[in-house]
Design brief:
By secondary structure, the protein is of the alpha/beta class. It has one domain. Helices cover 36% and strands 12% of the residues. It is built from 4 helices and 4 strands. It has a 4-stranded parallel β-sheet. Helix 1 runs antiparallel to helix 2. The chain is globular. The two termini are 15 Å apart.
Length: 130
C-alpha cells in the first residue's frame, strides 16, 4: 500500500485508491456531486492546503527564488499541530492502504504537492515514486 501524489482532475491511476484534495478551494464550475466522477477528489482536506495568502504567493512565483519562498512559507504552515497530526496520520495510513493526495497545479515541481511529498517522506510514508 502507498500514497500517490497526483494532479487533481487527471485520470485516476491503477491502485490509486481514494483521492484526497489538499486544496484551499473546490474546483470552480463543477457541481459537488461530480467532484469524484470528474477525477478531482473523493474527499476534500483543506488542512493540508496552503493558506490563501500562501497560495497567492505560489501562483505569483515565477523565479526559483520566489518558488523557494513559497515552499518555505508552506512548510512553516505545515508545522502547526493540526497539519503535523494530519501528515502523521497519512504517513501511517500509507503503510496499510492505498490512497492519493493532490492539487490542481499542472507542474508538481512548482506546486505545494512537491513539498507535501517531501513532508510525507520525512514521516516515513510509503510514497509512490513518479
Amino acid at each position: 500500500m502507498s500514497v500517490h501524489i497526483v494532479r487533481l482532475g487527471s485520470p485516476r491511476g491503477v491502485d490509486e485508491g481514494i483521492r484526497i484534495g489538499t486544496v484551499r478551494r473546490p474546483p470552480r464550475g463543477v457541481p459537488k456531486s461530480e467532484f469524484a466522477t470528474r477525477d478531482y477528489y473523493d474527499l476534500w482536506f483543506p488542512t493540508l492546503a496552503p493558506s490563501v495568502d500562501t497560495m497567492k504567493l505560489g501562483r505569483a512565483a515565477k523565479t526559483p527564488a520566489e518558488r523557494k519562498a513559497f515552499f518555505r512559507r508552506y512548510r512553516s504552515e505545515m508545522a502547526t499541530a493540526d497539519a503535523r497530526h494530519a501528515l502523521d496520520l497519512l504517513a501511517a495510513l500509507s503503510h496499510v492502504t492505498g490512497f492519493s493526495v493532490g492539487c490542481y497545479c499542472e507542474e508538481e515541481a512548482h506546486c505545494h504537492r512537491s513539498v507535501l511529498r517531501e513532508l510525507l517522506l520525512e514521516r516515513g510514508a510509503d510514497v509512490v515514486a513518479d
